[in-house]
Amino acid sequence: MGDSDYNSNVVLEQGGNVLRIKSGAAIIVDAGGAIEGDAGQAADPGAITDNTGGAASTTFAAITAGSSYAQADITAIKNALAEIAAQLNAHRTALINAGIVA
Predict the structure, then answer these.
(1) Dist. CA 98–CA 31, nearest whole Å
(2) Can you tell me the distance from the alpha carbon of 11 to that of 6, in angstroms, rounded to the nearest whole number?
(3) Which of 10, 39, 66, 69 is 20 to 30 A (C-alpha) from 101?
(4) Which domain holds residue 1?
(5) What is d(CA 92, CA 90) in angstroms, rounded to the nearest whole number?
(6) Contact by Cβ (8 Å): 26, 42
């Protein structure tokens, strides 16, 4: 029986080695559930500690090139680093909550 014989968006292909999730279908992992491979979950690398003193924002400020930098340029760099730390930590939390990392 070929794949076209199935009336489902989730198909265990012939031979049983591939589970195909077609467009419109989803895998839902309930709270407490996990998707694991033979190696188990990846270890949590730990959160990034943000000591930049910058203010996280989803927009990086332009930094003017030159031989010396104004305080505003340094503040923009600190804010950009703070946002990178905030975004990475948010992704880390999402991976932990999804059970992808322990």
Answers:
(1) 8
(2) 7
(3) 10
(4) 1-30
(5) 5
(6) no
